[in-house]
Each structure stands twice: as C-alpha cells, then as structure tokens.
Automatic annotation (TrEMBL), chain A:
Main location: membrane
Annotated localization: Cell membrane
UniProt KW keywords: Cell membrane, Membrane, Transmembrane, Transmembrane helix
A Pfam family of this chain: BPD_transp_2
Keyword presence, Cell membrane: yes
Organism the protein comes from: Symbiobacterium terraclitae
Protein name as it appears in the record: Branched-chain amino acid transport system permease protein
UniProtKB/TrEMBL annotation, chain B:
Principal cellular location given in the protein's record: membrane
Membrane topology: Multi-pass membrane protein
Record carries keyword Transmembrane: yes
Domain of life: Bacteria
Family: Belongs to the binding-protein-dependent transport system permease family. LivHM subfamily.
Localization per record: Cell membrane
Name of the protein in question: Branched-chain amino acid transport system permease protein
Transmembrane segment boundaries: 12-35, 68-89, 101-121, 149-169, 199-220, 252-270, 276-295
Any Pfam family hit: BPD_transp_2
Keywords: Amino-acid transport, Cell inner membrane, Cell membrane, Membrane, Transmembrane, Transmembrane helix, Transport
InterPro entries recorded: ABC_transp_permease, BCAA_transport_permease
Amino acid sequence: MNTGNVRSAGPGRGRLARTAGVVLLLAAAVALPFVSSSPYVLDVAILMLFYMCLALGLNVVVGYAGLLDLGYAAYFAVGAYTLGILTRTFHVNFWQALAAAGLFAMLLGLLIGMTVLRLRSDYLTMVTLGFGEIIRITANNLKITGGPTGIFGIMAPKVFGLSLGQPRNMYFVMLVLVVLTTVAMAHLGNSRVGRAWACLREDQDAAEAMGINTLGYKLLAYMTGTFWGGLTGAFFAVKMTAVSPNSFSFMQSVTVLMAVVMGGMGSVPGVILGGALVILLPELLRNVADWRYLVFGAALVLLMLFRPVGLWPARSGREREV
Amino acid sequence: MSQVLEQLLNALVIGSFYALVALGYSMVYGIIRLINFAHGDLYMLGAFFGYSALLLLGKTFLGTGVTGILAAMLTAMALTGGLGVLVERIAYRPLRGSPRIILLITALGMSLFLENAVMVFKPWGASFRVYPVTLGRAGFDLFGVHIGYAHLAIFAMALFLMAGLHLFVEKSVWGKAMRAVAFDREAAQLMGINANRMISMGFFLGSIMAAAAGVMAGLYYGQINFLMGFLVGLKAFTASVLGGIGNLPGAMLGGMLLGVLEVFGTSAVGGQWKDVFAFGALILILVFKPTGLLGERTAGRM
C-alpha cells in the first residue's frame, strides 16, 4: 500500500509508521474470518475485496492516465461471462478459463481502445458509456449468454485443494488477489510507465511534445485496466455461481468510478479505501435503501466541490498545485 | 409504402424529442464546453412537472384540453428552466476552471441526484406513472396513411419551439451576447457582457426545451419513469454530436436523423437492438467525423 512518493516519505518515522499500519491492517484482514463467524460479515467483506480489485484496475485508467471510463462494468461482465461460458458450456478447467477471461477482456479493451482513445476526454467518456451499454444489450440478447436470465450453476473450482465454494476460502483468495494487485499497481504507478501516464494526464500536448507515444501509453493503461476488470469478473462469476446482464449495468460502472474518485484518483491506498466505502456505506444505509444513490449523487457533487482530490489523495495538496 | 410513411411520421415525432433535448447539450457545450450529463434528467423532470401540473390544472377551469396541456407545458418549462439554472449555479459555476474530468464527474453526480430525488419523492416514485391525458387517434387519411392530429400537433409544436429558439439566438441582443460569450468569454466580458448571466441563460433555454420535450414525450408514450432521461439524454447527445456539437441547427438536424435511423432500424432488426443504433452511430461519428455534419470547428481540440 506504499504508493505515496517514496522520496518524500524518506527512511524516517513516517515510513515506519506506515509499514506498521499496513502490517496491522493485513493482520486484521487475515484474522477477520476467524473472529467473526457471521456469514453476512464475510459476504460484505468479500464484496469489499471485489470492489477494491475493480477500483485498483479502474484507477490505472482514470487515476493514472486520466481517461474517464464510464463503461468499466462491461469488462467485468466480459470476464464473468467468459468464465461462465467456458466452464459451463465447454468444460474448460478453471485456470485456463480465468486466464481466458482476463485476456478476452483485454483484447476487447484493445479493440475498443484503438477506435476511441484518440478522442478527447469528454467524448471518450460518452463513447465508453455507449460501449458499456452495447455490451450489456448484447449479453441480454444473445443465446450463448443465456439472454436476460444469464448463466447459472457455475461450479466452484478448487484452488490449491481448497474449494472456492467455501466463503472463507473465497475470502482468502480475494485477499491475496487484492494484496498482489496493490503491490503491482503501486509499483506500476511509480515506474517509468506510470510517470509517462502522469505526464499524459496533466498535459497531453506537452507529453506528446516530449516524445511520449500518447496513444500507445493510453492503450497500455486501458488494457491493464480491462485485464484486471476481466479477471475480477471471472472471480465474481465463481462467487455468485451465476452471471446475469443485470449485474453489469451503468450503475455498476458508476459505483466503481465512485470508489476511485472518493478515495482519490491515482492514489492506491485511496482507491482501496474507496472500494471499501462504496460497499460499506450502502450497507450502513440499508434501512434507507431507496436513498442510496441519492446520497451517492450528492456525495459525488459535494466531493468534487469541496475535495476534488479525494479522501486520501496521491500527493499533498501543496504539491498538487505546483 | 403507406407503412413506411406512417413510420416516417413517428420517426419525426421521436426525432423532434431528441432534437429539443440535443439543443440543450449543444448550447451548454457551446458556451462552457461541458457535456452536461444531467441534461437528460431535466427532460425527465420536465415530464414529471408536466404530469403533476396536468393533474392539478385538470381540476381547475383549464381542464385537460388544449389550453390545459399548454398551461401544464408552460408550467413544466418554467420550473425546469429554473432548476437548470440552479444546477449550474450550485454545481458547475464554482468549478469553472477546474479540470474537465472534475466537471464531468460533478455532472454525473448531479444526474444521479436528480434521478433519485424523483424516485424518493413520494407523489412520483419509482414505478411508471401513467400520464393523465392521452392523445386521441383522431386524424385524417392521406394516400392511405393515417395521420393523427395529435402527432402533427406535437411535431408542429417542436418545430415552433426550435424556430423560436433559433430566432432568439440569432436575432435578439441577448442571443448575440450569448454567442459572444461562447466565442470568447473574456473578450465578451471586456465589452461589458455579464458572462455569468449569459451562461445562466444558456442553461435556462436548454432546460425549457428539454422540459417541453419531456411533456410531449409523456403525452406521446403515455407513461413516464424516473429513469427515462438517461437513454434519451445519451441519444440526444448523439444527436448533437451527429449535427456538430455547439451548432444549434446541427442539433435539430441530428435529432431528426437519429429518430429516422432508430425507427427504421427497429423495423429492420427488431426492437431489442434498438438502443445499439444510437450508440453505434455515436461511436462511428466520433471516430470518423468528430466535427459532425454541420460542425466547422477543426479537430485540433480533439
């Protein structure tokens, strides 16, 4: 979770405190299924991990590269459907289906990215939204995707001898995935590629003038994001044992985007926090369920008005202004 | 043949809804370069204001005849216009000068807020509402085509509004000032034009057009729902891009074309793929001719 600027963190007390914090958080996450035996708590925790994963993936696109994607649920859907169809209809084994889900989503991301990534930010947003809807409508109307009812009866695979049908096993697999994703994304953000993305995000024309291949880097960001979306979608299909078009609506894309924006675009600890909050807050608001998205919408507007950098931004406000 | 003509009339009616909503997108984009995500929801709100106004006014001397409908439409337009101005004032104005992505997310949040505010508002709610007035089938036959008076009236009303807006923007002093702000805000301000007021006016005009379309759509389809603005908003955006965003005659043309494309596309491949046409059209236009049919702005800003 250590993404912040390593140089400014330095070897001092701040870094030690941060390491201690991460260790404590991880210990708490590992202990959770042993402390609480309530299936409800575990279910919410698993869902939180899913959204952390999705938010980390979308963060590459929106936070690192500055491309506002409103159709992210489409790649989540493609991953889930790919796994569902391959294991259910073609009896492919889980690992192959999982890889195929990620790759297939990425391939689609490449195709879509090549057509639309030349567009300026706000046009790009509308086009990704359009593609998201097209994919949902397609899933709703094709025979192979099971139409409006979708695909059900997806068997829980065994991972290292542990059945993913057990919520506790699913929880640990997702926890491992989140930790790995976190480490990978944090490194990606600080790498040479990550700096190119940041440059692109801040000023595309300047980036181009500096010799950065803007289209190539945008594609790379987009494909990383879509690959992660697909992979998470595949795990989601296993967890739910079913896939239906309703799970991949526009609101799904908005929820993941909300996680990224709320936490802080481009900040790895931020989007993890955001992923947890978008699940936790509605759960806390459960007895006023109708108001959920009203609160969401108002929160988005207020956040943009008063704290556009998010709750846990990538850099301090002072540095950001420079 | 007669069926094709009948469908063409339907296409023009639906197209005029798109065109009216598209005008708001184009106008706002022209002035402050923002894709107002919440604009489709103003269309939806217009439909709901019209619904309530018809229910209330129907009990007074106005009735639910032509006068009643016109009064309800004017009420809905006034209320939605005010709301559009309020949205700009509260959510968009403080963010002027922020990165576009921030503004876009704000507009998205505003859209969610408006939709769900209608949903949790008790007299309106989440289910479909049946419009208190339905259009009669009365009309005349022309070359074997049934032409409903009500459909003609809707189409004529839409044309009247569009013509009015066009004249206002092109001929009036206010319209001229608005265009000046769209062209160069700072220079316009130096010439003594109150840019904020002109931006508010752009929002007001766009909102009243959307509200009129919403009321007419409620009458035409017979039912309304808090989510009806989402798809129409997207399609209207497509229409404004099709014609060249920022260009008002382009928005009207784009709306009509989109209506025709959709109605004939539906009869060709079936209703379940209907919405794919608009999105497909949007993607194709943006990829191949992002300036639209009537747009002149160069692609440099893309």
